[in-house]
Amino acid sequence: MISLRLYCILLFSIALVAGEIKNKVWWKNIVFYQVYPRSFMDNDGDGVGDLKGITDKLEHFIDAGIGGIWLSPIYSSPMVDFGYDISNFLTIDPTFGTMDDLDKLLQKTKRLGIKVVMDFVPNHTSDQHEWFIKSVNGEEKYKDYYVWLEGRENNTKPPNNWISLFSGPAWKYNEKRNLWYLHQFEYRQPDLNFNNPDVHKEMNDILRFWLDKGIDGFRIDAIIHVYEKDGFPDEPVVYNKLTLTTDNYLNLNHIYTKNDPRNYDLITEWRKTVDEWTDAHNEEEKVLMTEAYTNLTNLMKYYTYGADISFNFNLITEVNITSKPSEFKHVIDEWILNMPDGKVANWVMGNHDRSRIATRYPGRVDQMTILSMILPGVAVTYYGEEIAMEDNLSITWKQTKDPQACHVDPEHFKELTRDPNRTPFQWDDSIDAGFSTALETWLPIPDNYKELNLANQKGKPESHYVLYQTLTKLRSTSIALQNGTLKTTVLNNDRVLIIDRQSNNEAIVLLINFSDDVAEVVDLTDHLPGATEAIVILANIGSGITWRSMVLVSSIELPPKVSLVLFAKVDGSHSDS
Ligand code: GLC
């Protein structure tokens, strides 16, 4: 008979082991980093980044304090939309290397303790995917894998007025099937038909395949576009003065092609698949992150229906360089207040579809980086933002690669192109910025690389990169940042924003002066009870303020455009969140 004491010890050790395996919500305070594989590091010298290149540079993530990376698609693809047109979800495109290269990358990330999240693109495939080829050929099983419809006017016109995100009709006629297929994006990206149960099964199998490979989660692409309204009615035409050409996506109100309620159920379905897998394998929880450009209510639904991180793009889409502190406060507060209980906040500052921070916020790039790191939860960094890379605005029409821009004309392409924010990472001042040895890189590297590069910023007393490192280190050591309360305040006639994080006796406070020319003096006595002095942990580069200097809490001087992070010991105990 097992004694009671032994039984207790046994139970305790099982709990410990289980605790080790089930490190629930490991992403709670993580910094995620988006790697755009074509542009991160080129190992084989063909001018395009690859998996071996990423593996070569994994130590960079440790150095920068990044806990997890998410990879834009690396699957087989004709590269019409640079990997977002997938011709086989289970193989690696030769541009990026082989499955063996990925295995090696995963071995090394596991050793270094870096999480890896893969992009999952359910809305569409490439027209080169065998499912589509079989669908075109009318093979019974695959006939309804895609959205096929008869056209109007004796099949001579598209079935309705829908417009593709990449301009022009969202339907393409196929002679062989004598039908039109739906493509919400490029015409070589046919939309899958999720009314077909076989498509669900394929998607779940794909998730399990990659989980078996050892990845830590998925970023789910373009989820709002997956289902369309039954019956395929015309969408209302809207007048939009931003409209560039008549067949522009902005000309319609997308009430039938976006935000269908069934999209949320898909998240629940995939959550279940992923959780069943982790339970069966007694593995750590996997993260699901959703990409949805939609309103706050819908964004919160993604959390409710099973996403761990419903990407928060609101600091990209809802505020800009002209916004006031009160507008920032509103965007921050509404996210926190509306988030379902127990979920983790997140702050995305950039991605492969959006202009870079330094270009969106000239002279204020650090302000945005600091903000994302001081706010509670997950910070999401797009590659290159740790050194404040800028958009390459000199890319010409001839050099343009992005299908979204190629589908318009030389006059309008600049308004749509995503190429400027996808150029190679600037590692150093050598040839191709240390990214490649090729004569030409797939997108041109901006001339500023001789100055603006990682090597040049490393180890400097102050640089964008050192600021980034200081912030990630602070996140990993500060209890106030990990578990503390959040208070947002607007001061000095809506010219100063205060982000106040406190836990027990520790306070970390971010102060931002939004004015370009007026210096402000701020009194934080009410915020920091019992503190008369605070330490400047950091300030934006070029602020002229010495890091680790002391300030008086009752009169903190904030020169124009300055962002300051302070540390203070305070009285009283703030309950941890
Ligand atoms: C997502 C991606 C974007 C891509 C589109 C189509 O929005 O972020 O880059 O073009 O999906 O897959």
Automatic annotation (TrEMBL):
It comes from the Eukaryota. GO terms for biological process: carbohydrate metabolic process. SMART domains: Aamy. It is an enzyme of class 3 (hydrolase). Residues 34-422 form the Glycosyl hydrolase family 13 catalytic domain. Keywords: Glycoprotein, Glycosidase, Hydrolase, Signal. The keyword Phosphoprotein does not apply. SUPFAM superfamilies: (Trans)glycosidases. One of its GO terms (molecular function) is alpha-1,4-glucosidase activity. It catalyses: Hydrolysis of terminal, non-reducing (1->4)-linked alpha-D-glucose residues with release of alpha-D-glucose. Residues 1-19 form the signal peptide. Pfam families: Alpha-amylase. Its EC number is 3.2.1.20. Gene3D superfamilies: Glycosidases (3.20.20.80), Golgi alpha-mannosidase II (2.60.40.1180), Oligo-1,6-glucosidase, Domain 2 (3.90.400.10). The keyword DNA damage does not apply. InterPro entries: GH (IPR017853), GH13_cat_dom (IPR006047), Glyco_hydro_b (IPR013780), O16G_dom_2 (IPR045857). PANTHER family: ALPHA-AMYLASE FAMILY MEMBER, NEUTRAL AND BASIC AMINO ACID TRANSPORT PROTEIN RBAT. Belongs to the glycosyl hydrolase 13 family. This is alpha-glucosidase. It comes from Ceratosolen solmsi marchali. The gene is LOC105361467.
